[in-house]
Every structure is written in C-alpha cells, then in structure tokens.
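Chains adopt folds. We examine one example:
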Amino acid sequence: MKSKIHRVKITQAELHYVGSITVDEDLMEAADIVENEKVQVVNINNGERLETYVIKGARGTGEVCLNGPAARLAQVGDVVILISYAHIDKTEGKAHRPIIIFPDENNQLVS
C-alpha cells in the first residue's frame, strides 16, 4: 500500500461518464495520489471492491464521484476507502511507511 484515503463518502455517481473516480484535489495531494493513478475502491456499505483510475475534482469541495459502470457499485452517501499501491523491492518495503489520511464526515482534511 502506497497511500490510503480512509472513509470518505460518495458525493455523486455518474453512470453515463467515461469511467474513473473523481476525487477532490486536496484529498489527492494529501494522500500523494496523482491524476490517472490506479486505485482500489472498497465500499464499506455493501462490500463491493473495484479498481479504476483517479481524475482531479474541484479543490476543497469534498467531491468523490464514481463514474461510468462503477457508479452502479455505490450510492451517494456510501462510505469508501481508496487505496493506491506501488511496486517496491523488499529492501524499500522494509522502510516504507504509507500515507494514510482520515478526512472528516464532509470529506474535508482534518488539521
């Protein structure tokens, strides 16, 4: 695990969009996730898991929107965990410390 955004709420689901997950740019930066990076989305409400890529959402909005077919796997208000991974060798792995952020109930960073 490279980084994790732990327990954010889905704010929107857009079935007829090209696919991906849109995430508030503030959350992306805090978790060291870059646009187009592959993430795993784990839905706490229904147990669904999916993989997709991230696109930037408007900064400071708390936006977390599932797009395309993935929109069928969550409802607005569902709580999810976003996890990104990195390939590292065993030596690097022993020293690696993932970045984990815990946004508040409005998907905002807690200072």
Summary: The chain has a mean pLDDT of 96.
